[in-house]
Amino acid sequence: MPKPVPLKPGDSIGLIAPSGAFDAGDLEKALKVLREYGYTPVYSNHIFSRYREMAGPDWIRAKNLIDFWKNENIACLWCIRGGYGSIRILSRLPRHLVEKNDKVFVGYSDITFLHNFFIANGKSVVFHGPNLIDFSNAGEARRRRLISFLEARIPFRWDIKETNVIRRGVASGRLIGGNLTCLTHLLGTDYLPGNFWRKAILFIEDRGEAGYRIDRMLNHFKEVGIFEHLQGLVLGSFTACEPYDRLKERILDIVKPYQFPVICDLPFGHSADQDILPMGLEYIIDTGSGYFAPTEKVFSTQ
């Protein structure tokens, strides 16, 4: 499966709304920010549709994604916001959609459904990172860092400090995951094959979930046998959840029967300082050497 090329000023970025409805004023700000960085935003007027809390009926949201994916003049699809709705369009997406014309695909939160659907159907890499409105609301320094990731001007590599380590070790495997609540709702569906989790490094993050709910979801992963297949576990931000020290205690208790390394509090997820994390690639966790990074090229021209 081909990998996308890095973005460059002048590229067209397709704006899609596969999930929740958004405020038109927020979009106007986002359009201005993209243009300031030299990009050409492209969107369909369908994104202004409304259906309940979503950005239009399911068929419109699915069609917009499919049409933009097939458009060879669009280099990147950037989700406008999360919220709710992506799971409702999975059945409308052809599984062969990602076989050709690979693109940079950016989003997070509810976009977890799409990320893992694409990985399961052969997409080489997806980018877990701020939805477009979050990107435009970030500070200038943060926006420049995020754009630099997508333009392949800074490496995808993160230091692991002592405070990031829940359990030591070295592990390698394909990185999959995203929002914990969304991932839990994918378990048992036909969208993720049985071998999806095998020899994988699982990344999870969430927002606004009580400690017992996180505990329940992770125990569900344990009871259906997911942890038996994992090589490692990476925790991003858990904003507005219980204190991180309590969360680490829960995690260590749940993964006690397994041997894989566990690292935590990395800058991915619902936080103001989130980075862009490519998923679907082979990664390494090395707590001894103190780093977490892909072991293969992220873009086709690197």
Automatic annotation (TrEMBL):
Show where the LD-carboxypeptidase C-terminal domain sits: 172-282
Return the similarity comment. Belongs to the peptidase S66 family.
Question: Keyword Zinc, does the record have it?
Answer: no
Record: active site: S109, E205, H270
Does this entry carry the keyword Repeat?
A: no
Protein's UniProt name = Muramoyltetrapeptide carboxypeptidase
Name all LD-carboxypeptidase N-terminal domain ranges.
Answer: 13-129
Record key words, sorted: Carboxypeptidase, Hydrolase, Protease, Serine protease
Q: Which InterPro entries match?
A: Carboxypeptidase_A_C_sf (IPR027461), Class_I_gatase-like (IPR029062), LdcA_N (IPR027478), Peptidase_S66_N (IPR040449), Peptidase_S66C (IPR040921), S66_fam (IPR003507)
State the CDD domains in the record: Peptidase_S66 (cd07025)
Q: Name one GO molecular function term.
A: carboxypeptidase activity
One biological-process term from Gene Ontology?
A: proteolysis
